[in-house]
């Protein structure tokens, strides 16, 4: 059966669309489920304010859903958009766009469910600070969406930017590597950011007077947790925009694909680890605010050490791109 | 469920107003497809938000199986609905695709903007000192 280029592009776009929405739905569904589970617990603890808890759950779920709506946008674009000049390189870029968005939405979706759930439970314990908890939840959830936004940006670039007369070999592998680097690296950061945001809602509901310190440490912890996804973004930008000399050797293509895989997988653990460090710091600052400075320092040192594995992954990726 | 309805009313009316104002500005400035795309996307964003709120109480107090089926049906229906403005914008030149994409996130923008404004306009509480 002979397959023309146009058909290959369509196959790649459909496969990319399927992956974008299929994987992209996982995270938001788990996150929203967690929020709902905690809301149930909250209502059973304090049924008199079920309306207030429902309200918070609605707003929390609406924001947590953003990651899967990003995935939906990319999936629909891949399924229905016309490709004016079909080429094998474009097929690779479209498949990579779906991979980037699909994987990239998982962590943010799960992560943004945590602050939603903890805020619902916190409202049951402290109904008088419901508004403060909702605001903190929304800030935490919004920051969790950052890795998914990076993934969407990379997906849109892969879909819409014309990369000129780049040679098919080995550029096809560079595009796939770019999608994998961004999509996978975003998982850990999105999830880790959610851990910190969830702990901050729990902490504020326990000691409302510590809200300012808790929110500050949450934001610092979340910002550091995002670093592996920024490394993923950096590697995918290099893979997309660096021009590679034409080479039909399979090893040249595999080096670029491996660079993306290395940074992508290498970013998952540090993102989660950084989030755990931030979660611990935020949780204990709420209980022991007079030692907030010490706790923040320990958090940052712990995150820096946890980050080192992402830096190793980035170094190996750079070696694969520039040296091998 | 009064607080739920109230919050829906607030965010839906604000989202509609914002989309109509921004959409009109684009239309008057000569970028008609962007304005129309934005308003179209916003309408579906608002419907999605109302449906989340309306189906929440329906899922409570039912058996586990019924709750699961209702939640699944609700998600499938809402996502299919959210795809409509995107497909329309891709197929009809009268609607700009990026305007429609911006429009479907209008409720989320309004929720975040509302709470950020509250933070900016409220007097900062004194930090607890150690």
Please tell me about this protein's structure.
The complex is a heterodimer of chains A (324) and B (130). The longest helix of chain A has 41 residues, at 5-45. Chain A is flat, with a radius of gyration of 21 Å. Chain A starts with a helix and ends with a helix. Helix content of chain A is 85%, strand content 0%. Chain A has 324 residues and is mostly helical. In chain A, helix 4 (88-125) packs antiparallel against helix 6, helix 6 packs antiparallel against helix 7 (168-206) and helix 8 (211-225) packs antiparallel against helix 10 (250-287). Chain A has helices spanning 5-45, 50-64, 66-80, 88-125, 130-144, 146-160, 168-206, 211-225, 227-241, 250-287, 292-322. Chain A has eleven helices and no strands. The mean pLDDT of chain A is 93. Chain A has a single domain (5-322), classed as Four Helix Bundle (Hemerythrin (Met), subunit A), CATH 1.20.120. With 130 residues, chain B is mainly alpha-helical. Chain B has one domain (2-121). Chain B has five helices and no strands. Chain B has helices at residues 2-28, 32-58, 64-91, 97-104, 106-121. The longest helix of chain B is centred in the middle third of the chain and has 28 residues, at 64-91. Chain B starts with a helix and ends in a 9-residue tail after the last helix. The model of chain B is unreliable at 126-130 (pLDDT under 50). Chain A binds chain B through residues 29, 51-52, 54-55, 57-59, 61-63, 65-66, 68-69, 72-73, 76-77, 80-81, 131, 134-135, 138-139, 142, 209-213, 289-293, and chain B through 1-4, 6-8, 49, 52-53, 56-57, 75, 79, 82-83, 86-87, 90-91, 97, 101, 104-105, 107-108, 111-112, 115, 118-119, 124-125, 127-130.
